[in-house]
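request received
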Amino acid sequence: MIDDLGSEKAHKSPQSQKINDFCMTICTVNGSGSATANITLLRAMFHMGIPVSGKNIFPSNIKGLPTWFSIRLSDEGYLGRVAHDDIIVQMNPATFQEDINYDIPGGVIFYADHIDLPIQRDDVVVYPMPVKDLIKAADIPRNLRDYMENMVYVGVVSQMLGIGLEYINKALLQQFEQKPSVAESNFAVVKMAADWAKDNLEKKDRYWVEEREPLEGYMLADGNTAAALGAIYGGFQFCGWYPITPATSLAESLGIYAPKLRKDPETGKNNFAIVQAEDELAAIGMAVGAGWGGIRAMSSTSGPGISLMTEYMSLAYYAEVPLVLWDVQRVGPSTGLPTRTGQGDLNLTYYLGHGDTQQLVIIPSSVNECFEFGWKAFDYADEFQTPVIVLSDLDLGMNLWITKKFDYPDKPIDRGKILWEEDLEKFESDWGRYLDVDGDGIPYRTLMGNKHKKAPYFTRGTGHDEFGNYSEAPDVWLRVMDRIKLKFDNAREKLPKPVYRNIEGAKIGLIGMGSTEPAIMEAQDILNKMGITTDFMRVRALPFSQDVRKFIQAHDRNYVLELNRDGQLHQILVTEYCDLTDRLVSLSYMDGLPLTAKWIVESLSEKEEK
Amino acid sequence: MAEQDNTNAIGLTRADYKGERSTLCPGCGHNTISAQILYACYEMDIHPSNIVKFSGIGCSSKSPTYFLSQSFGFNGLHGRMPSLALGAAFADTSMKVLGVSGDGDTASIGLGQFKHLIRRNLPMVYIVENNGVYGLTKGQFSATAEKGLELKYQGVNPFLPIDIAKEALIGNASFVARSFAGDPQQVRSLLKAALSHRGTSVLDIISPCVSFNNREDTLHSYQWGRQHEAPLHDIAFVPTRKSIILDEFKEGETKEVTLHDGSVVVLKKLEKDYDPTDKYQALQMLEEAERNRWLITGLIYVDPGQPALYDYMNLVEEPLNRVPAEKLRPSAEALQKINQSMG
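response:
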């Protein structure tokens, strides 16, 4: 459920009808161009004012394997995944039988009628679509026919469910912003298919899409684009990256937007650089170098890339180099499920590095928060002179979500404690790169190019004292590492605090993070109706604020809900709050798909019964 | 003359270019190279604050603390100094970037980053202090050790070596030189040329390890080098074209290569004709040298016109790390437009 998107808009409908409250899955073959058609449907429904979410379940493959796109409509604003389908649009013979078995009784199946397979279901409404015949009749160039086939189901589905074709047209024009003629030819097919459906199909199902008031203040965007825009507004100046699903589109979005937004208005020159590295080892090395050199540096990757980046991240921690690293999580271990989502990198990123390394981790849950954390991450990195890892995931990063419009940053860029020539001249106390002058664990740094005689220092990953000199002395090591720890403890209350959704009188706590939020909030409502009232705290940063302890203490039992096998957030909570262990219960799950409210409700109520 | 009062043209003394006392073994080739870096920078009137030093891990990589204390420096990770230097270089592209690596750091763990640095042609001097052996871990073979080399605890090396100059050349490096720590004058001239080149300048310097690999019959030893060094030419570095009047170069044939900043490398022909702008000849020479166990030294290849990494970046003039924060954030209006486009 998204914030103020409201249940008051929910339409009271006769029992027999299902209006704006169902899930439709479109089954296609990847590489066939169906993404355009699916997003067109999604956008059209968004333009109709209906809270809608789209999840692309796709294979690690370029062309020819099954792919599914699930669209969920919910007047009440529930955007999490549901495990069943009300409507199936079947375009793929390879998964024909299997997919249609997911349809609920009373559901609907649209299918391309050239697929010559039996539908052994008498409890669903079936609509055949003469896809090939319609395309043939439409006189479409041979090379475009496969793509245009997808527009047939857009037309038929729109006609049968009541999606206004004007909204489809608007969505197509948005999709093909640069090529209105392509939008036009696509729309012609949609129109033709809709007309055919009008003349030849009789409405027998109970599903309808109904127009609502426009969703003011909301838009459709994906987390990776938001993260890139956030970085651009956060003043990123350098990105070293290496392609990896599902993080690739983050760096690519930088490459699209930065040249438009970050040219010097007077000279037309860039105040940033993006370098595609030869691997993740180099991508992070570049970012560490750039961060050290004093420009806002970042990288983006996913689990396997994080593994490769570990050594440099350990150096950056100890040498105290600011940078921002996005981890758009996929499913591990190993290559795992590259095109599926999860929250399995929490432990890895929090402790990323050998020895006593610990990293600052911030965890957005929405596209809007990807933007917000996108710029804030740089301020945190500069303030604490350390890497900041932003933990996103495939579901958030690559899928389109309804999200609030991005807010312009509410405070100016803060570069932290940097001394240039004139600052050093005025600096009253001794200066050493690692000397804690203010007692907050954060020293002052000078940057290469600084001409002041006192400015230069030598940075190393080996033991060093407050002035950057090599040292193996036990007391020096202890002192420097304790200071860095102080810095980290001071970050606890400055990083994004947890957010809450409380229900009066709740004794049970729910703790979660990231993109599972919609599923958790939906589960919270269902549980409430079942008589299980809960408060929900979404953790947004590690190390934890003391508010996290307070929440745990305030609840008899706290279920820690997360999308990984081992309950990693639970593990960290138990480690941090070993005195509160008996109040913390792990509920974790991982099969590569986004969490569902159903799973939460079932597994939590089962625990509660015991 | 500035030389007379012991200051250079920018009023600095040699002492201003010094570093910490070396902790490397007495007699280590790396110390000679450190000294030549110091002299080269002094003589070229480069202010230490305009130089930034990088290194990887190993004996060689410790050396950047032994020169230019008045320069910023970063001792990074084993084999991955190129990426570190590349990122940092973008913070202020006016800086002279100086990297010191070793044969283990470059030819083993760092071969990938080395080749990609070259491919991007980042303006930097990349020195490999090449001794064929791992020093800090006490005497294992490195990837540049010759086939048949026998080391105390390692036995006999069965593998053919990686030739750093050849790797650089095949990787389309724009500046490839080889030298020998026992020939400090040549090291200095090549360093000066490298510092003037706008692109990645690879200097493969045979730098004997007196502790683990200095037997007279081995390729990376002082004695072998002194007896077998075969310079391709006598080399002189001239800061500007105007000042080319070099007595010792009057006799015999010379070849001149003008570098990006207008300085000139003057090469005097020795026994054979050698044209360092001819890549084909360079490759042939390296192949021949390997077959015949010649330690050829000098400027092997140079292409002053090859575009450098910055040329593709359309960067603002001022150093990126001095761009005021307010210039780094686009306007609220631009964000509003983006919001509209997604609505």
